[in-house]
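The authors assume throughout that readers already know how a fold can be written as discrete tokens. The format is easy to grasp once an entry is in front of the reader. For illustration, here is how one protein appears when written out as sequence plus structure tokens:
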Amino acid sequence: MRRLTYKMAAKLKAKLLTIALFGMPLGAFYAFSAAISSGDIVFGIAVGTIIGLLSGLLFTFLISLFAKWQESKFRSIRCELAKKYVIIYDGAANHFVNKEAVGGWLFLTSNGLFFKSHKYNFQAHELWIPYETVKSVSAYRNLGFIKNGLLLERKGGVQNKFVVYAPKKWIKEIEQMLQPK
């Protein structure tokens, strides 16, 4: 039997959360609509449950396809970055800029963190954070309850917030890089 790795478990948890966060509100809406239009609460609940589950699964599937496509597009950036730095860890991430969760890829390198957004954002950008500018790294709850946030507090008070898979793994790796050599 194949064991779940930390990254696989985090991705599974994220997919289940996506199904719930997208499917439940949509299912509730359709349950309410079907119950009102048919006058049958049981029918409404059945319709809402089916539509909520199917739409949650479809949305999660489409987001997973988009993530795999983005991962393949960021391979060339990974190769270019690897010519200059040792890449320790990398993965899909969102960087919060003026309340927009800018999607892209975060690289943990031997000299700092590098974020590159994909082109499907209003605020497409690159961000380089050298380790010597980092004051602390910690987890935070995205939307107040989802444990997928990575908070980098920099010297001078600047904060960079990211959403990542497995924030504990990111924090562990970053803290190791912040240790004096």
